[in-house]
From TrEMBL:
InterPro entries found in the cross-reference section: CblAdoTrfase-like (IPR016030), CblAdoTrfase-like_sf (IPR036451), PduO-typ (IPR029499)
Protein name: Corrinoid adenosyltransferase
Keywords assigned: ATP-binding, Cobalamin biosynthesis, Nucleotide-binding, Transferase
Domain of life: Bacteria
UniProt-listed Enzyme Commission number(s): 2.5.1.17
Gene Ontology biological process: cobalamin biosynthetic process
Similarity-based family: Belongs to the Cob(I)alamin adenosyltransferase family.
Molecular function in Gene Ontology: ATP binding; corrinoid adenosyltransferase activity
Organism: Paraflavisolibacter caeni
Pathway membership, UniProt: Cofactor biosynthesis; adenosylcobalamin biosynthesis; adenosylcobalamin from cob(II)yrinate a,c-diamide: step 2/7
Catalytic activity field: 2 cob(II)alamin + reduced [electron-transfer flavoprotein] + 2 ATP = 2 adenosylcob(III)alamin + 2 triphosphate + oxidized [electron-transfer flavoprotein] + 3 H(+); 2 cob(II)yrinate a,c diamide + reduced [electron-transfer flavoprotein] + 2 ATP = 2 adenosylcob(III)yrinate a,c-diamide + 2 triphosphate + oxidized [electron-transfer flavoprotein] + 3 H(+)
Domain Cobalamin adenosyltransferase-like: 5-170
Keyword Nucleotide-binding tagged: yes
Amino acid sequence: MAQKIYTKTGDQGNTSLIGGTKVPKNDLRIETYGTVDELNSWIGLINDQLNSEEFRNELKDIQDRLFTIGSALACDADKEPKMILPDLFLSDIQLLEVKIDEMTAQLPPMKSFILPGGHVTVSSIHICRCVCRRAERLAVSMQQHDLFIEKLVIQYLNRLSDYLFVLARYTAQKLGAEEVPWKPRTGPANI
């Protein structure tokens, strides 16, 4: 017999961390790993949209790292030493840096801020970047509220958002989409 997806245990607004500790569904830890989960879904969407051998495995590896981060965030930190969870490594961050540098070497230098857009795939990558920045802000908020979070998680999310920005630019170039520079309006308002 198949296991049911619903348990009804969350009907009162609580959920359990890995380890069994009950917390409200709006707990900062839940909000953070929920945002990482949202980011993972966006990464899946851009991987489907890119449909590129160049990035297919790279993006799947990023999704794997995001599951690793999610499992760490979903864990009761007091019980975590007793559990075997996947790890995030400094080499994961360094790999993102290598990929950023490889793509950047093929792009024209930026002379201004760039408006997100130009192609649906490029726009999707920019949305993904914004969700990643939100996950990063929430992770920093956890740190500031003295909730345990590995420093590598914050570093990885920071570097991943940089990677996604460069990927958006790189994808725009590959698709022949125009990069629209932001030209700030100056002067008096026309009322």
